[in-house]
Amino acid sequence: MEIKSNYNTELEGKIALVTGGTKGIGKAIAERLYQAGAVVIVTARNEPELENTKTHFIAADLTVANDVLKLEEQIAEKFGTIDILINNVGGLTTPGGGYKVLTDSHWENELELNLISAIRLDRTLLPKMQEKKSGVIIHISSVAGKQALWNLNLAYAVSKAALNSYSKALSTEVASDGIRVITVAPGATKTPPMLKFVEDFALSSGIKNEDAEKELMKHVGGVPMGRMAEPEEVADLVGFLVSPRASYLTGSIYAIDGGSLPVI
Questions:
Q1: What UniProt keywords apply to this chain's record, in alphabetical order (predicted)?
Q2: Which segments of the chain have a pLDDT < 50?
């Protein structure tokens, strides 16, 4: 089967939803899909500081079940259904220090944000994708899901590992319905939360930001490429995976980490 693509128009006629789409990786993905011709809806808890005329914003807190239902209603009313779902909402919200410092609340909040929110949204939007026998779902995970650092991101890493497993199982369940489900696992990426994490680590350790960044890279075994990823680099990978050029890809996890994972 020959597939010909114009990268500037290959998503024309497609409607995409990017969660957490106002900052960092989510914002870069929204921009990339727009450039490829898609109509892009972004959702986040709060409206972006600067209006973006390229995308359509709908406020929603995906850790709240009722907000997800309202989001689905607004999408159905304004756009009908979606073709591409980018589950990007997530983040590291728990303290470092290992199991002793993590309370039940820490674990529950991390799982709600990084796992349950994606499951909840998939469950809400998947039926219409199944009806039309097409769709692509991308779960934005993390290399932490394969390499947990007990003293930095234990609960976060566990939640992302669970997301990886869920995404793989879902891909198998819905493949026969014409729906592809793929996981993208970025490593350290220059997003506002990551830069804030580096800054806080530097402050608590009494070192400079650049030294804190180097120290964090050592924790993950080093980054052979010697730098963090730019959000646009992650977005370019996602742009390919949702395109017709990736039509035979599903169920896989794609790490984009500058070579940091010490495993095959």
A1: Oxidoreductase
A2: 1-3
Can you give the pLDDT at residue 6?
61
The two beta strands, 253-256 and 179-186, are parallel
Number of Cα atoms under 13 Å in the Cβ half of residue 133:
1
Active-site residue, 34 included = no
CB-CB contact of 91 with 63 (8 Å): no
Strand 84-87 to 135-140 pairing: parallel
Buried b (16+ CB within 10 A) or exposed e, 66-96: ebbeebbebbeeebeebbbbbbbbbbbebeb
156, 166, 248, 254: which is the annotated catalytic residue? 156
- Supply the pLDDT for residue 263: 78
Distance of CA 221 to the CA centre of its chain: 23
Give bridge partners of residue 186 from the DSSP assignment.
256
Both tokens of 262, joined, read 């010490």
